[in-house]
Amino acid sequence: MARKLMFPLLLIAALVFAACAAPATEAPAPTEAPAPTEEPVAEEPTEEPMAEEEMAEGEMADIVDTAVAAGDFGTLVTAVEAAGLVDALKGEGPFTVFAPTDAAFAALPEGTVDALLADPSGDLTQILLYHVVPGAVMAADVTDGLEAETLQGGMLTFVVAEDGSVTVNDVAVVATDIAAANGVIHVIDGVILPVAEEEAAMAEEEMVEGEKADIVDTAVAAGDFGTLVTAVEAAGLVD
Prior knowledge:
Elements: H1 2-21, H2 51-58, H3 63-70, H4 74-82, H5 86-89, E1 95-100, H6 102-106, H7 112-118, H8 120-129, E2 132-134, E3 147-149, E4 155-160, E5 166-168, E6 171-180, E7 183-188, H9 195-208, H10 215-222, H11 226-234
Parallel strand pairs: 1-7
Antiparallel strand pairs: 1-2, 3-4, 4-5, 5-6, 6-7
């Protein structure tokens, strides 16, 4: 009987001893909940400031701006501005321009360019329009003997040599098919003059060189006797 009571007492004592010996554990300190954060707002994409400029740079320039950018048509551009033809050549077109280089203008008799610029509403406008053909005439379209009417009303005649070189009214075409937004530019190494102006320039050049002009050339150079000169030529009295 005593042995039966002893075992439960020992068990109780062991449990009490274990409870006293176990280290006390601290309760975990409460942690603060993180403050709610705002959802990041997606920024709307902004247009690149250079996009418009890059698009503008990617667009093909018109005939006038193309000539300016080329850098070898300073006199031509000055003449076009003086004659008030800039807006016309910036128009819808298409146009084909036979563009004389600066060297071509410099080859004219001394003082010719200055005289033309001094009276832009006179011969200058007619000469410039004589270099412009309505429509786009590409190099591949040119055949020997082809004629094209200019905005001035006169005709241009093309000659294609056996080697493929091309002249227009006896002026050499040195570069072709320069594309513009409203047409095409072909570079020529001379200034094409309408017939009356060409005859007058030749007569003036002869006089400058010291040769005394005859009556016919003097009348041509004066510029006021077109009908008379035509009648004399028709009657076969020039010689």
